Amino acid sequence: MIITNWGDDFACSVASPQLPGIVAAYDEHPDAMELFTLAVDAGLSPDGSIDVHVQQAMEFAGKQFFVRARHDHRQDERGKLAAQIGQELAHDPGLQAYVDADRFDDAVVVATLPSDRIHDVMEGADDNAPLTIGMRTADGSVHYIGMLSVTSDSRGRRLSDLGLDASSTIGAVFASLGTDPSTSQHQHGRILVVA
Question: Which end of the chain has fewer CB within 10 Å, C or N?
Fold first, then answer.
């Protein structure tokens, strides 16, 4: 489930790529039981589970950006990274241009940790919808890479070309591309990995 904050003067909305029947709006963040009830009403088994992601909506130069972070036991770390990414987007037109938008001209940047699995990160994306992955390196800078979940006949650099699969970590993707977490160079190089 994805909770979107629309700004200081607005409420939040809830949607889910895995349960398309979920569309809701709240005056404030819903609690865990409200989210689970919403998911069960949309078709989730009462014995199922949900992953929650929180994203901040922002607009620059007519383009809508969403900076997303998984809401879990490391949410503080992810939240700080998401805030850093939001600040970089606000002040870096080059990054704004780099982030790929979907067919609605919305661009999603996901705050990830090196230990996050690719499958878990891509789970919140629609097929053929690009995500930009942001990962903080040891020196505090953020590195970015574009990822896209597509069909097998699509062209592009594949995880298997890097010796990786969907169970590999985001840190392994960056390391395979020569942008490992110890690199001190801030880089926005465009590399598309087909998941």
Answer: C
